[in-house]
Amino acid sequence: MKQCLISPSMLAADFANIQRDVEMLNESEADYIHIDIMDGVFVPNISFGFPVTEAIARHAKKPLDFHLMISHVDPYLEACKNSGAKIITVHYEGAVHLHRTIATIKSMGIKAGVALNPHTPVSVLGDLLADLDLVLIMSVNPGFGGQKFIPHTFAKVEQLASMAANINPDLLIEVDGGVTSENAAALIQKGANMLVAGSFVFQSADPKQTIISLKNV
């Protein structure tokens, strides 16, 4: 079986020791570093802004996977690029002109993704799926780390993988929220090929080994 990509979420890192945690990820088998941007409007929380992401980028040796949980994404795409984003994912529920936003991201030479909240069916992406590099399935309600995994995610991942098989077979299918060693294998079996893990990695006794275990479930 092809190894799953792992993108540990900085939302669960120790903000007082960001450089240390980024350097730990640099030395790990993580494939990406996941950056959650929250505005307190689209989601009921605020994470960190671009001065912090620029600091992360200065130390990161892994590509940065930006997840924008904000209401107005277009004015901030350039700031994501300047912070070293290799993937920018925006929410279906928050984008007014989604096709235009995706085209703008791709014109910057950055992979473009769309995230779906738990209540949003994957069928809404039918007309856009061929243009995407990634779809992020939220397996918790966005805004806070450490939430419990929503089981219906398995069916959504399976449906998305079926849709993508003919339209976009290289699509990255990413799952974010409550991912652990207990559900990772089932997610991959259903078609996920990229997993975000925050608390499960950073709160473990040996984060580097936890990342290896997720890659090899």
TrEMBL record:
Cofactor note: Binds 1 divalent metal cation per subunit.
Single GO molecular function: D-ribulose-phosphate 3-epimerase activity
Native organism: Marinoscillum luteum
Record InterPro entries: Aldolase_TIM, Ribul_P_3_epim, Ribul_P_3_epim-like, RibuloseP-bd_barrel
UniProtKB keywords: Carbohydrate metabolism, Isomerase, Metal-binding
Matching HAMAP family: RPE (MF_02227)
Co-factor requirement: Zn(2+); Co(2+); a divalent metal cation; Fe(2+)
Summary of the function given for this chain in its UniProt record: Catalyzes the reversible epimerization of D-ribulose 5-phosphate to D-xylulose 5-phosphate.
Signal peptide start and end residues: none
Protein name: Ribulose-phosphate 3-epimerase
PANTHER family on file: RIBULOSE-5-PHOSPHATE-3-EPIMERASE (PTHR11749)
